Amino acid sequence: MKPDVPQGRIAVSLFIPTFGRPRSLRRTLESIAAQEISTPGVTLRVYLIDNDARGSARPVFDALAAGFPFPLTYLPVPEQGISHARNRALDTAAADEACDFLSFMDDDEVADPRWLQALLDAQRAYRADVVTGPVVRSFPDSAPAWVAHASIFRRKTYRDGEQVPRAASGNVLIRSEVIRRSGLRFDHRMALTGGEDELYFIQLKRLGYSIHWHNAARLTERVPEERLTRRWVFRRALCYGNALARMHFILRPRLQAVVYLLAFAGYQNVRALQQVWRFIRGRRRYVEVDLLQHLSTQLGVMSGLLGWKLENYRHVQGG
Q1: From CA 21, how far away is CA 25, in angstroms rounded?
Q2: What is the pLDDT of residue 6?
């Protein structure tokens, strides 16, 4: 059954969780201030969720709040972990009876001027429970040549309107009624590992809610220089594999999860061989970076199978 499309007044609450990134956060908020919303009756309220016990986002809020074109609210969530910050957003939206839609974006992203309008247009066109879109990565001029070829910096895209199996919280619009009816929350066990958003949307999908893709709803993520190293690729892929293992132990019975993860590790081997073959045929450059990614992902999966927990989000990456 397709959800009803709100008529007349439409209230959107945008939540931006942040931790120790005041410079990039300011750019994020400036892009929201420049949003062009053409649908009559749309009201936007922006919530800044500060997940830093030191209150690092407070000066940014104080500097922008008075002149911001939309109501801007500061919500401190001192218990570190992205799940805690996101759940504060879900609870806030669910408790606000006037809220029709909740939206998330990250504190290192910049929105196209009609980003929010594109999300609303897509929700109306597809009568979607959830709408998501692309996040395009932007690199500094000093980025090494291999970055443009590395798989780890590319994200899968889909056709407009296509139903997708999951979403990431960096670019999403959710009907508030979905939050109220499902009662689902971001899993606190993944608060510092990452992957909590992928798990959440997979669980929503299993409950029968629809997730649609829309290419015009585009955000840009500015990648800091400290991520443009092979060491970062190793660490990122390692933590992804570990979080993937932990996620599937939540989603599946233990034996099924083990079988799935061993099959996934085998798939990574196949992908690595494909990359080597493309390199031999002269169709792939800098293949060693992708091989490093595949190897690290497998190591991460194995560490998860052994019960290890890697907390990739305990420290700030790019401020």
Answers
A1: 6
A2: 58
Map tokens 């958003």 to a residue: 197
pTM comes to: 0.93
Reported as a single tens digit per residue, the pLDDT across 162-210 is 999 999 999 999 999 999 999 999 999 999 999 999 999 999 999 999 9
Summarize pLDDT for 196-246 with one digit per residue, the tens.
999 999 999 999 999 999 999 999 999 999 999 999 999 999 999 999 999
Question: What is the Cα–Cα distance from 32 to 35, expressed in whole angstroms?
Answer: 5
Structure tokens at 123: 């929700």
Q: Are 177 and 90 in contact (CB under 8 A)?
A: no
Return the HEC string of the chain. Answer: CCCCCCCCCEEEEEEEEECCCHHHHHHHHHHHHCCCCCCCCEEEEEEEEECCCCCCCHHHHHHHCCCCCCCEEEEECCCCCHHHHHHHHHHHHHHCCCCCEEEEECCCEEECCCHHHHHHHHHHHHCCCEEECCEEEECCCCCCHHHHHCHHHCCCCCCCCCECCCCCCCEEEEEHHHHHHHCCCCCHHHCCCCCHHHHHHHHHHHCCCCEEECCCCCEEEECCHHHCCHHHHHHHHHHHHHHHHHHHHHHCCHHHHHHHHHHHHHHHHHHHHHHHHHHHCCCCCCHHHHHHHHHHHHHHHHHHHCCCCCCCCCCCCCC
- Return the structure tokens found at 228: 């443009």
Query: Contact at 8 Å (CB) between 37 and 44?
Result: yes
